Amino acid sequence: MAVQRRAPLRRWRPGLVALAVALVAVGGLVAAYAVTLVGTSRAYLAVARDVSQGAVLSGADLTVVRISADPALHPIPATDVDRVVGRHAATPLKAHTLLSAGHLTDEAFPGPGRSLVGLSLSQERLPAGRVTPGAAVTLVATATATATATVAPTAGSAGTPTGPPPTFDAVVVDVRDGIRDGTFLVNVAVSTQDAAPVAALAAANQLVIVLGEG
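Request: output the structure for the sequence above.
Response:
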């Protein structure tokens, strides 16, 4: 006659039981924390697309995001959108940036004593990929432009510049692709007294951008 065998009784180990209870408790805390985060998230304003420094902000430049923001960031609540639209961008703004009060200004750009000049430059007239918004640059008149501003030539030196080329300090506002292939439109802020000569040299294609302060 066959003898029936009983499966051995499974012994519960106190250590494993305690571990299981701890894991369940941790899982509950994580879930509760996640619910808390979702419940405390608020709507804030962010930048919907790239905005040039000095540009007037419109509703199309803004979007609303819901996050649990760090209080140190001081983001602008979405309810304050009417206080943002119509103000100027104090700095170049990148898309998806959380908007704060420091990004805004009531002063028109580029400010008193400054003028904005657009330069259409070919690739060889500026450092490749290194001219970015906010960069301090020097605008240098080329040899052709310098020659027209020299004193009357002496024998054996006709058309030869007698001194260093004229330079102008500027700050890059933004950089875009030009209308023609291989060209860039670089908007720069210069002193008002330099605006006219810089514009004239730019129109004659007689400017080169040097990165760094002159």
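The domain at 40-105 is CATH 3.90.1210.10 (Type Iii Antifreeze Protein Isoform Hplc 12).
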